[in-house]
Amino acid sequence: xxxxxxxxxLTLRDALARGAVSAREVxxxxxxxxxxxxxxxxxxxxxxxxxxxxxxxxxxRLHASGVALGPLHGVPIAHKDLTDVAGVRTTLxxxxxxxxxxxxxxxxxxxxxxxxxxxxxxxxxxxxxxxCYSENRIAPPARNPLDPRLSPAGSSGGSAAxxxxxxVPFAPGTDGGGSVRIPAAATGLVGLKPNRGRVPSxxxxxxxxxxxxxxxxxxxxxxxxxxxxxxxxxPNYRPTSAASRYPGSFLDAALRAEGRFRIGVSTASxxxxxxxxxxxLGLDSAATDALHAGIGMLQRAGHEVVETxxxxxxxxxxxxQLVWTAGLATAPLPADREDRLTDITRVLRRRALGRSAADLxxxxxxxxxxxxxxxxxxxDHDMILTPAVAMTPRPIGWxxxxxxxxxxxRQCRYSPYxxxxxxxxxxxxxxPTLRLPDGLSMSVxxxxxxxxxxxxxxxxxQIEAVRYADGDFPALMxxxxxx
Length: 483
Known about the structure:
Blueprint: H1 9-18, H2 23-41, E1 44-47, H3 49-65, E2 76-80, H4 107-114, E3 118-123, H5 157-164, E4 171-175, H6 181-187, E5 190-193, E6 213-218, H7 221-231, H8 250-256, E7 262-265, H9 275-278, H10 285-300, E8 304-307, H11 316-324, H12 343-353, H13 357-378, E9 383-387, H14 404-414, H15 419-424, E10 428-435, E11 441-448, H16 453-469, H17 474-477
Parallel strand pairs: 2-3, 7-8, 7-9
Antiparallel strand pairs: 1-3, 4-6, 5-6, 5-10, 9-11, 10-11
Helix pairs in contact: 2-3, 7-8, 7-16, 8-16, 10-16, 11-13, 12-14
């Protein structure tokens, strides 16, 4: 029998449902693994041993009673430390605020608790979730399990590291500019950003820029589909909720892995319009090789993969930064604690406070025009293929060893392909396509048509099947069964 942590989330879920293993056994196993690995990886800021074991015992009593079980009965997960979980402190990754214990679950935590999932704790994030790394001033940095000298990226980096190190089978993340997809790419996972309005508890319909969604971090397309199915199963009281175009479940779409698609390839980035500020946005050799590997795998799976010439509004860089950071202007920070902020937060907050309402309105208008024009260009294809990131994972401290502006510019150079998808509200997924000789993983990004997460999961599963046939898909090669 395989070790519990080597099982796909789907296999573990099924074993729990039929009673082949108890929730207590599973929870204890993963807590032991966290205790062993987390000191070196910094994935968790808070581990909730007692709460998790109480939840596991309750889950086992439910199983024994014969009542209907939730779709994630007994499956361990973890939440970013931006998400309130009842009875657990929320730090938001900042030393500038008191860390209050949450009185109730946030909607994202609530829907997963109702589904039967068991939270094992809270994971590391950058301050306020602003950055594409997971370092702050309140806890050790999250480290990449593929090489602990490197960052697992962010802002869902602690969760990605926990999944990659198999301290949890999968986890929800949130993505306002790439914060699910970028850490998935850094750690060799599947990271799915759903369409705007798809996930009620993280719909990108509550923040000013309509950017932030919730989505899964997982080892496989099937596990990502399983988690997404749960995240969408709640009412969305907004008039622009995204309806799935696929008649079955997202898990079913991943398992069927059907469809042949016209896929446009592009390395254009809207940040290139700020070349005078950002400098060279070129791809390193690993990112180029991963893109070429992805093209080859998609062609072997039967897709039409063609070059496409995309152009982006040169005003994007300034408009995105203004809207993305606008919330810092209203953050309730005591004046005497400003010095506790990280450098990048302090720089961006001061800049946000200096903007006028007219500046903000103009920036939002630029992004809405960008959304329309970009989706129009993409509409000639079923999907757009881009690099996931422009470089291999960065060393711990690479972003923060200079001033806040340099930090921001380095982030743009590392991940110039993800935030545009949030602005457009489209679904996208990052998929591992290349394992480097040193064990690092590199990925590509697939951007779907509006509402087509099912197609993205199918294409992801097809890439996995090609890698598996080549003997080069660690997530499946290492997995097993409960038999």
